[in-house]
Amino acid sequence: MTSSSNRSLARLRAVQTRSISPENPDGRPGGGARATEGTGAAAARDLGPGWKISPSVVVEPGQTFILADVDGAGVITHLWATTHTDHWRTLVLRAHWDGDTEPAVEVPYGDFFAQGWGRFAQVSSQVVAVNPNGGCNAYWPMPFRAGARLTLENTGPTSAVVYYQLTYETGGDHGDDGYLHAQWRRSNPLADRTPHVLLEGVEGAGHHVGTYLAWGVHSSGWWGEGELKHYIDDDTTHPTICGTGTEDYFGGAWNFDVPGQGYTPYSTPYLGLPQVIRPDGLYASQQRFGLYRWHLPDPVHFATRLRVDLQALGWRDGGRYLPLRDDIASTAFFYLDRTSTRRPVAPTFDTMEIR
């Protein structure tokens, strides 16, 4: 922590802390530990109220469960949740700011926490931490001026038991804050010689702050030569920011290959390759990867619009690039001066399916 961060932590502010969980579903003062029935009632039958009567909720197939519905100004500071890995790609997390009927965040539960493959991977970063075994934490600041509504939709065929706790501050001045947005897109397979789009149609002023990719390889050989490009404001054919390769964008080099070890996972405060899934010789026939890059010290600012895309390139004989048709699912995080913007079609059970 820097000295300025230390000073910020020490500063007294005219805000109050609230927390929403199944034990206090509306976060009201003195509202916790009052449940008389819930998923823990049978285990607490000898103890009574106040002894973990309602630690979780059951989200039924087809149901949209309201995680939090907050009135007034504030900022969400921490979201912790856990559910079985089978539901990481069937639950859809949404966030609406200031009463907007259109969501700013609309992402599969697992991908929001850098867990796109339905398997646990340790993530130890500044804004996302996922710990054994499936404790998912997000520290993205989520400010709002008139209200916040977060929901979980269960698109799957089975009930999901979800434990969660959402901590937020009430009050404060958020007039200069942007609203957190997160958008999910998947190309499976990626069209021939066509970049995968992470963001397009984003209008307004803001800054891109994070990228997570769940990348499934459909061919042999190296897959990470493609460039990531930011088309900022008036850019059309040519981008303002053009990277030098996929592994470079995620802070790695030379195929993520430590000699003698092959692909080598890593997780750092701002970037990582936390997940390497190798073929098992049977049904898991392809290599799969999870990668993140958080633009916290280096956000990509735009004044009017933003488009971001990524090439998928490998190598072919003769030292030539090979355009790939891989399975690429991206989650892009950004702050914007408005509560909603153009977004892709909502994730569905079929489009999220891990195959």
From TrEMBL:
Pfam short name (any one): DUF2961
Region Disordered, annotated ranges: 1-47
Amino acid composition bias (Low complexity), ranges on this chain: 1-14, 34-45
Gene3D superfamilies: 2.60.120.1390
Protein's name according to its UniProt entry: DUF2961 domain-containing protein
Taxonomic source organism: Friedmanniella luteola
